[in-house]
C-alpha cells in the first residue's frame, strides 16, 4: 500500500470507486422510481398524494400520530 502524504492511496481509491458505483446505482434507482410514478400518473393516480402516503408510511406510528395531531391543531387555528 503506497502512502502519499500519510494517506493509504490504494484504500482511498477503493473507497472512492465504491462510492462512485453506488452513486451510479442510486441514479438508476431514481430513474426507475420516476418511471413507476409516471406509470401511476398514467393510470390516473395523484402522484403528489402517493409521495405523501409513502412519506407517512416511512414514519414511526408515534411520530405520525403526533404530526397529525399538530396538523389538526394548526388547521383549527387557521380556520377559527
Task: Compute the separation of the termini in Å.
Answer: 69 Å
Order of helices and strands: EEHHH
Question: How many structural domains in the coordinates?
Answer: 2
Mean pLDDT, rounded to whole units? 93
What share of residues is helical? over 70%
The rough form would be described as: elongated
Instruction: Tell me the structural class.
Output: mainly alpha
Rg is: 22 Å
Low-confidence spans: none
Strand order of the largest sheet: 1-2
Q: How many beta strands in the DSSP annotation?
A: 2
Strand content: 5-15%
Number of helix segments? Answer: 3
Sheet with the most strands, sense and barrel status: 2 strands, antiparallel
Describe the structure.
There is one protein chain. With 80 residues, the protein is mainly alpha-helical. It folds into two domains: 45 residues; 33 residues. Helix content is 81%, strand content 5%. It is built from three helices and two strands. The protein has a two-stranded antiparallel sheet. The mean pLDDT is 93.
